[in-house]
Design goal:
This protein is of the alpha+beta class. The chain is built from 22 helices and 22 strands. Among the domains are: 195 residues, Heat Shock Protein 90; 161 residues, Ribosomal Protein S5, domain 2, CATH 3.30.230; 65 residues, no CATH class; 34 residues, no CATH class. Strands 1, 2, 3, 4, 5, 6, 7, 8 and 9 form a 9-stranded mixed β-sheet that branches. A 5-stranded mixed β-sheet has the order 10-11-14-12-13, sandwiched between helices. Helix 4 runs parallel beside helix 7.
Length: 702
């Protein structure tokens, strides 16, 4: 029998409520049965959480989640304080160290947090900042003109969610320190001697609390990427990252004098640009400092990044809205004035003018209004007005000064508009076909009988051979099979109108049921599991990459919502007598062979030492040349079609045994870059990528 694989179970982070139960003692009423009716509701039933208790009770309200994203958010909150010192003109160096025992240390050479007694709280200002919500130098006065930590809860939240936090401050030539345990001071702020720093500064070392975070594992790549971004946004400031967890320290250092211009050039690397020089403008309007840059490439996708007071706003906000409005209006005005647009109604849309654009918008504002503590969206209306004015004037001047760049950009916008109209006609044609029409393929979609999307799966397989095995081996009630012929169109190099003329892609779009582009509707998804099931060879990997590119470019919601999977068919069948086992990797194959060999040897040893059969059994178990073993047959699967339907079901499609990898795009920008390198028009970046990784290729089939 095949070796059964335990189905993967996703470990969900403990909820805020569950975490809170570990930090806040339950009242006597809380221990009663949930079904019992409350006997009273008086003043004694009202609970007041003091100090940092609210943070431990509901950590998600302050850091978004308690998963790895929330864990890393602790670093961002501490670093934001150092960035604020840099934006105020006082810090020039910031260092982040990843230490053993899941500790993080953040050091800056800013002014150092004040340590004298605070008049209102009657304790040190350092202790006040570290243990009191909404306390800091960013609510009034002249300490900070602009800052990212507008709520004043950042470092105190980190303190509340850490088993240990130590603050060290250099001021007046002296070093002061205080330690905390889950937000509670362990002693008063004390002077411990002369400062080891030249000048002033602050160092915060913390260790996240396992009671709050189910998994504590800092990803140095995530830290490096975030802090590189901060270095671009804070020109003239040196940011270091040192990973001390390995055998030798890993060191990263960033310093950019060019600011956003350096940033947009970094994001444009490996892509063919339309502009000779990137657009850049920085100007203040209505007390809002606006900085923006963009660079058009001959790619199809749009990349926009927006920041407010150096805080990344992934959901955009008023500043990004103002940028888009200015871009669309100004390019339309220029195109009409230069005779590119004839009809008064023939306007370029926002999508037309942003196709292939890499843009960064950054504003500095005194009273930023973010939505939520994680600051995903900026809500200040004055940011929209200021950005629209500054960017509109800047683009107008740029187009007049750079007529060659202007002509190339407008021509690309017009081409995008033409493709949009053709794509609409193509999409209308596809959508009019209905759910299952138009699939005139050699292997048609074999649908499942279930009409409940939550129970339904669609396996996308390559070719008729694999399709035939999958159709015969599947569970017809819940599993649909869509065979695709050959390699689908490379959508990295094709617009949607051309893409929808491809029969294989059109079949896939119709089978999914969601439509595509602006017509996309995830509620109409016909299968909640879409499984890419390709051969374990070079062609299969290529087809899988093309399909991943298609989903990443045109169905990203299916990835972010967890609907896309990759099947893991076995690479080997290992057979010894009546025993059949499957291996999903070379190491697993070797382990299975070793186990079978060991069992044979033990079996032989149990027989009488003089029995002649023992000699035969031992010889049968002895390894032969090439690593093979007598009595063991090994079949290498290069294609799914080599498996009979029963084998394909048992190893790859049976929910009780199969292995599925959920497709998750953790870093969309990095994935975007790799797709461009591997499937884009530029040959040189792809050549460099392959050459740099050739040394890691093993068992290359030629």
């Amino acid at each position: 029998m095949p070796k059964k694989k335990e189905p993967k179970v996703e470990k969900k982070p403990a909820s805020d409520k569950a975490m809170a139960g570990k930090a806040v003692a339950k009242s006597p009423e809380a221990t009663k049965s949930a079904s019992a009716k409350p006997t009273s509701y008086t003043a004694k039933d009202i609970y007041v959480l003091e100090g940092l208790e609210p943070v431990r009770k509901r950590p998600g309200m302050y850091i978004g989640t308690t998963d790895l994203a929330g864990l890393h958010h602790l670093i961002w909150e501490v670093v934001d304080n150092s960035i604020d010192e840099a934006m105020a003109g006082f810090a020039k160096n910031i260092r982040v160290e990843l230490l053993s025992d899941n500790k993080i240390a953040v050091t800056d050479d800013g002014r150092g947090i004040p340590v004298e007694v605070h008049a209102q709280t009657k304790v040190s200002a350092l202790e006040t900042v570290m243990t009191t919500l909404h306390a800091g130098g960013k609510f009034g006065g002249e300490s900070y003109k602009v800052s990212g930590g507008l709520h004043g809860v950042g470092v105190s939240v980190v303190n509340a969610l850490s088993t240990m936090l130590k603050a060290e401050v250099s001021r007046d030539g002296n070093l002061y320190e205080q330690e905390y345990h889950r937000g509670k001071p362990q002693y008063k702020v004390r002077k411990v001697g002369k400062s080891p720093m030249i000048g002033t500064g602050t160092k915060v070392t913390f260790q996240p609390d396992p009671q709050i975070f189910p998994k504590i594992e800092f990803d140095v790549k995530r830290v490096v990427d975030h802090l590189r971004q901060q270095a671009f946004l804070t020109k003239g400031v040196k940011i270091e990252v040192i990973d001390m967890r390995g055998d030798a320290p890993a060191y990263h250092s960033f310093f950019f004098d060019g600011g956003l211009l350096s940033f947009v050039k970094y994001l444009s690397r490996g892509k063919k640009g339309l502009q000779e020089v990137p657009f850049y403008v920085q100007k203040e309007s209505e007390n809002v400092d606006v900085e923006a840059t963009f660079n058009f490439t001959n790619e199809l996708e749009i990349q926009e990044l927006s920041f407010a007071n150096n805080i990344y706003t992934p959901d955009g906000g008023m500043h990004l809205t103002g940028f888009r409005s200015a871009l669309t209006r100004t390019l339309n005005d220029y195109a009409r004035a230069e005779g590119y647009l004839k009809s008064a109604d023939d306007n370029l849309t926002g999508d037309d003018v942003r196709e292939g654009m890499i843009a960064i918008v950054s504003v500095k504002i005194q009273e930023p209004q973010f939505e939520g503590q994680t600051k995903a969206r900026l809500g200040n209306t004055e940011a929209r007005t200021a950005t629209e004015v500054v960017v509109g004037e800047g683009i107008k001047n740029f187009l007049e000064r750079n007529p060659g760049d202007a002509r190339r950009v407008i021509e690309q916008c017009l081409l995008a508009a033409k493709a949009r109209k053709a794509a609409k006609a193509a999409k209308d044609t596809v959508l009019r076909k209905g759910a299952l029409e138009g699939l005139a393929l050699p292997g048609k979609l074999a649908d499942c009988s279930s009409r409940n999307p939550e129970d339904s799966e669609m396996f996308i397989v390559e070719g008729d051979s694999a399709g035939g095995s999958a159709k015969q081996g599947r569970d017809r009630r819940t599993q649909a099979i869509l065979p695709l012929k050959g390699k689908i169109l490379n959508v990295e190099k094709s617009r949607i109108d051309k893409m929808l003329l491809n029969k294989e892609i059109k079949a896939l779009v119709v089978a999914l049921g969601t439509a595509i582009a602006e017509s996309f509707d995830i509620s109409r998804l016909r299968y909640h599991k879409i499984v890419l099931m390709t051969d374990a060879d070079v062609d299969g990997s290529h087809i899988r990459t093309l399909l991943l590119t298609l989903f990443y470019r045109y169905f990203p919601q299916l990835i972010t919502n967890g609907h896309l999977y990759i099947a893991q068919p076995p690479l080997y069948q290992v057979k010894s007598g009546k025993e059949v086992r499957y291996a999903y990797a070379d190491a697993e194959k070797d382990k299975i062979i070793a186990e079978i060999t060991k069992n044979k040897a033990l079996k032989a040893k149990s027989k009488a030492s003089e029995n002649s059969e023992e000699t035969e059994e031992a010889a049968e178990a002895a390894p032969t040349e090439g690593g093979e073993v007598k009595g063991i047959s090994i079949q290498r699967y290069k294609g799914l079609g080599e498996m009979n339907p029963a084998q394909l079901w048992e190893t790859t499609m049976n929910p009780a045994n199969r292995l599925l990898r959920k497709v998750i795009v953790e870093d969309a920008k990095e994935a975007d870059r790799l797709f461009d390198i591997l499937l884009g028009d530029e040959v040189e970046p792809r050549k460099q990528f392959i050459q740099s990784r050739a040394q890691y290729v093993k068992n290359l089939d030629i």
